[in-house]
Amino acid sequence: MNKFEIISQYKMTGDQPQAVEQLTEGILQGKRHQTLLGVTGSGKTFTMANVIERIQRPVL
């Protein structure tokens, strides 16, 4: 069982999968600073939760 696991009825939509892929890739490449931009309610927190689940480590 993964240490970080999202339990949600929601699935990623729109540009979220691409954002998760790019952010994950950046973290794994050692990029210390990345920015996720989005309007209120666009799913930034959910997107980052998916990144955390994918890399299985805290990001802050």
Number of helices: 2
Q: Percent of residues in beta strands?
A: under 5%
Instruction: Report the radius of gyration as a whole number of Å.
Output: 11 Å
Shape: globular
Distance between the termini: 22 Å
Could you give a short account of the major beta sheet?
none
Strand segment count: 0
Question: Which range best describes the helical content: under 10%, 10-25%, 25-40%, 40-55%, 55-70% or over 70%?
Answer: 40-55%
Kindly state the mean pLDDT as a whole number? 95
What letter string, H or E per element, gives the SSE order?
HH
What would you note in describing this structure?
The chain is mostly helical and 60 residues long. It is 42% helix and 0% strand. It is built from 2 helices and no strands. It has helices at residues 16-28, 44-55. α1 packs across α2. The longest helix is centred in the middle third of the chain and has 13 residues, at 16-28. It is globular and about 30 Å long. The two termini are 22 Å apart. The mean pLDDT is 95.
